[in-house]
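Chapter summary example: a protein plus NAP.
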Amino acid sequence: MTTILFTGGSGLLGSEFKKQYPSALYPTHKELDVTDKDSIETYFKLHSFSTVVHLAAFISPPKINENPRLALKTNICGSAYVVDACIRHSKKLVYLSTDYVFSGKKGNYKEEDAIFPVNKYAWSKLGGECAVRLSDNYLIIRTSFGPNVFPHEKAFIDQWTSRETVSVIAKKVGMLINKNATGVFHVGGKKRSVFDYATEKKRKVSIQKASIKDVPFLLPTDTSLNTNKYKKFIKNGKI
Ligand SMILES: NC(=O)c1ccc[n+]([C@@H]2O[C@H](COP(=O)([O-])OP(=O)(O)OC[C@H]3O[C@@H](n4cnc5c(N)ncnc54)[C@H](OP(=O)(O)O)[C@@H]3O)[C@@H](O)[C@H]2O)c1
């Protein structure tokens, strides 16, 4: 059985993985700070594992617009340090990227489609992807997820997504990890508006309609993902 180290394991997705991989390593931010090369090196030397699932990131688009240096430090430099350690210590690296690497002009994006983010958060995640691609043993997952109960009072009627709840995405990503997938995979559910996603059965029902034009930062319109490669791989064990 693969032994896994999760960076950012206390976050939304990491907390879901803890249920799936209870005996994996989940260092706190303090125990393994991805912006600190020495902290990474010390942790790698002291613990035994074969795969790193790199979740640690700064993920708020509005905060990153205000202070892009936070994303530069954590999402780009931090990811580069993690990649460097994985190369030197011969670890497989799994990186969680975002559907926001696409411009959102057409939707139904395939893994090989052209990438062109519309906001700084997504550029920083793409920066992480670039670093990961310098490794020879990686899995990049582009996805979108939210808490199991929709947390906001409003949801966009004019933004389209393949978003799923975090528990669904953690299981789908876990299947790729367990089958030792490599390369780039899109993971998500069916295309719908964020409003339809938010008001689906079992989620909070009193949600108001909102528009992406109402927020003071740029959001892509349609970053729905084509997940055919994922479905084929899970069914046949090959691409
Ligand atoms: N949410 C989405 O829709 C979505 C979509 C696609 C991809 N992703 C990606 O999926 C990953 C997980 O997202 P999430 O929603 O679970 O994020 P999250 O809840 O914000 O969790 C982020 C985690 O990273 C840790 N962290 C931040 N800076 C760190 C550092 N310098 N060193 C070590 N740990 C650090 C945080 O710990 P502290 O809180 O202790 O600082 C936290 O555990 C991220 O890479 C994100 O970009 C998210």
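Key point: The domain at 4-149+163-190+224-236 is CATH 3.40.50.720 (Rossmann fold).
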